[in-house]
Design goal:
It contains nine helices and seven strands; from the N terminus they run E-E-E-H-E-H-H-H-E-H-E-H-H-H-E-H. It is of the alpha/beta class.
Length: about 220
């Protein structure tokens, strides 16, 4: 069954699986962590994932940005922070650890946070392999929340952002690289819930809070 709730130019799309046809997610999880969940934000660059992650961190979530793993590796190698070097490091980490590399590297830190127990928000899960690894190994439910926005609007945001701006041509190349090389479309298509972020930041965060209150993530 699908539920579609729309507010002007903003929408929440929620997908609910029929429990009679699908195994309960909790029943397929390792029984190691209780009373905490992981919310994995997925979406293309410029959709608004980091804004959501920062908001939830301020509300008490443990926040981990998968892109931060790449930045840390760039600094360790003494490389300048730019799109080309980020892509090179992402590809080298996956060549070394497989397509689930970021999740594999982050797994111990995520498990430690969940064991507190404390809800976790993952900013920027990329590949379907990362999702599968977390679902199998994390020990707590993983909920996929896709943040979506029209492509040209995303490019406008990426051009205007103060840190690491991208031209429209660079943004398009990055989209294509992430779709073709990083399995990024899989988690977006498989998301449990989707927020369409074509309005302002306040709208996005208000609707995020509404959804998570319904899911009992927030008091």
């Amino acid at each position: 069954m699908s539920v579609y709730i729309e507010w002007d130019d903003f929408a929440i799309i929620a997908r609910h699986e029929d429990s009679r046809q699908q195994p309960n997610l909790l029943m397929t999880m390792p029984k190691t962590i209780e009373n905490a969940r992981a919310l994995a934000l997925v979406g293309m660059p410029g959709a608004g994932k980091s804004i959501c992650a920062e908001h939830l961190a301020a509300r008490g979530f443990f926040s981990l940005r998968f892109g931060g793993i790449v930045v840390a590796e760039l600094r360790r190698r003494g490389l300048p922070l730019n799109p080309e070097n980020e892509r090179e490091v992402r590809e080298s980490l996956r060549a070394q650890h497989g397509m689930a590399a970021m999740a594999q590297i982050a797994l111990p830190q995520l498990q430690q946070a969940l064991a507190v127990p404390r809800n976790v928000v993952i900013d920027g899960l990329y590949s379907f392999s990362e999702y599968r690894l977390l679902r199998q190994e994390l020990g707590a439910p993983v909920i996929l929340l896709a943040i979506a926005a029209p492509r040209q609007l995303r490019y406008q945001r990426l051009t205007a952002r103060p840190s690491r701006p991208l031209s429209p041509a660079q943004a398009e190349r990055r989209d294509i690289q992430e779709i073709e090389g990083l399995e990024k479309g899989g988690p977006i298509a498989f998301a449990d819930y989707t927020l369409l972020n074509s309005g302002g930041v306040s709208q996005l965060l208000q609707r995020l809070d509404t959804l998570l209150e319904e899911l009992c993530f927030l008091p």
